[in-house]
Amino acid sequence: MANWTPVGPAADVPESCQQACSASEHSVVVFRIDGQLHAIENLCPHAGLPLEDGEREGMVLTCPYHGFAFNLRTGANVDDPHDAPVRTLPARENNGQIEVDLDALKD
Ligand code: FES
């Protein structure tokens, strides 16, 4: 069962923007790309540093610390698919709010 959790107004994430948000005890980053919302955990699997200031090109986000790059749809490390992925979450817009499904972060 999904655990849809509001993380902020949809207006705060216009097209081509990324925004760090708190969701319960988690930090996530929400993106709007080609009208679609995407969300990842704000935690690089390499060394546990935040991804919110990473540079995005298309569907790929590059960590600002050591340059690991992740596919925002799948979470996969684009340079080494066998390396740990970043965790992704379903995201949606509901009544003017962005919501993410925190069930995706259950261990
Ligand atoms: S902490 Fe992200 S690449 Fe090292």
TrEMBL record:
A GO MF annotation of the entry reads: 2 iron, 2 sulfur cluster binding
- Pfam families, alphabetized: Rieske
Q: Which UniProt keywords apply?
A: 2Fe-2S, Dioxygenase, Iron, Iron-sulfur, Metal-binding, Oxidoreductase
Q: Identify this protein by name.
A: Anthranilate 1,2-dioxygenase ferredoxin subunit
Task: Kindly give the Gene3D superfamilies that the UniProt entry links to this protein.
Answer: Rieske [2Fe-2S] iron-sulphur domain
Q: Name the InterPro entries on file.
A: Rieske_2Fe-2S, Rieske_2Fe-2S_sf
Location of the Rieske domain: 4-100
Gene name for this UniProt entry: andAb
Q: Which organism encodes this protein?
A: Mucisphaera calidilacus
